[in-house]
Amino acid sequence: MNKKLKKEIEKKFCCRLNQNQYQDLERLIFEVERRQNISTARLIDYLKINSGYDKRTGKNRFLALKNCLVKYRYPLTSAHEDINKKKLFLNKIQPVLKNNWVVRKTFKPATLFFEKETRGSYLVKNFQRQFPNLKIKQISTFKNYFKNNQFKIAKLKKPLVFITKETRDFLKPCPCTKNHLGCGYWIFNLGYGCPFDCSYCYLQQYTNSPGIVLPANLDDFFTQFDRFEKKLTGPVRIGTGEFLDSLALDHITNYSSRLISYFRNKKVLFELKTKSDKIENILREKPASNIIISWSLNPEKIVNSEEKGTPRLQERLAAAKKVQNAGFKVAFHFDPIIYYKNWEKDYQELTRLLYKKLSPPFAWISLGTLRANRQLKPIVEQRFPKSDIFYGELFIGEDKKIRYPQFLRETIYTKMFRWIRHFDSKTPLYLCMENKNIWKAVSTLKTTKNIENYLIKNNL
Ligand code: SF4
Hints:
With about 450 residues, the chain is of the alpha/beta class. It has helices at about 5-10, 20-35, 40-50, 60-75, 75-80, 120-130, 140-150, 205, 220-230, 250-255, 255-265, 280-285, 300-305, 315-325, 345-355, 375-385, 405-425, 435-440, 450-455; strands at about 110-115, 135-140, 160-165, 170-175, 185-190, 195-200, 210-215, 235-240, 270-275, 290-295, 305-310, 330-335, 365-370, 370-375, 395, 400-405, 430. It has two domains: about 5-85, no CATH class; about 175-195 and about 215-455, pyruvate-formate lyase- activating enzyme (Alpha-Beta Horseshoe), CATH 3.80.30.30. The chain contains 19 helices and 17 strands. Strand 15 (about 395) and strand 16 form a beta hairpin. The structure holds iron/sulfur cluster.
């Protein structure tokens, strides 16, 4: 707590603040200063003139200050509607992490740990071959390792690699989010952790161990899928890339070659989702109509500031072009779409660039605006002090995640659909983790089943 600031507010506005009240004001002041580039002294002057505090007494004086700050902090939303204060997320200010591990553009593992049962596996050998000086250690199990080694968030991205034998978590339906429409996607759970370091990445808040976990027993994954397939009544969409970029380490894991060979004859649409340009293994494979390679895209400004360690936008588009030229179906994800001052110009330009470089139709394009569990924001503040994206107009939504308000999401999606449809009338478009009202604004699809069928029918 900034005691000096508390004293100053209490003195200037003749009030007493309890701890919660001060935390709210401190957070709002902090975020207004970040957004508006205004000094505390000027902000206090602003409050003196605009809050009407002097006409209130007691708790109402605090509320007058808070209301005034909320209006200043959320100008777009306040102009559009009354802000429900229960939807604000005013978390305690976090100190910036010291010694936060910074990712490098070229991945170089620090230590390789392998579970006893994976000794001699092709993955361990690949790492040894590509990094001859790599420190290698045998562990009993990954679970035991992280039970006995204290995890510090500053070391989240230390490039430790764990080669494991997966025994349980092979395949699962995408949980989507509460009260929202899903798309019927299945997650092929191959790998966890990621060599990239996107500021908005939800893995930061899920993870309680450092490094990257890579299962060596792909055959067991395939056996599990064979069983799952027998129960299927129709085709499904399935893919990797949920907990680890699908291609970022493909030059070491060779996962993509084995996945493509296995899934090419299956009655499913199999997707590899990436921000990477590691496409050498893909280009060696014969394309198949049910294999889709997809890229997440954002304007160059966001790639540079929020997607650390990833290939730049032009590199991703060039990789996608090569993969498309080789005969593969490609898809794209505009996710997360971030709202900022020049977002319209930048996202319109991004759309133009995509259609200049690649030929539609694509397997699909998904769109999703920035959203996160509340627990993520303090972690991002500690790990990415320069990032401003969580100082956008985000509120606690129906699913308890912080997101842009409904009217803003509707505006963003309507515009994005229009820009895409200007170039491309055929590619199926869908929203990721959105509610029925937002879907209604951009589409006639009304249920998860409708959405799933729409995406499958257009590709099989
Ligand atoms: S590429 Fe995906 S999984 Fe990797 S850090 Fe970025 S958001 Fe997270």
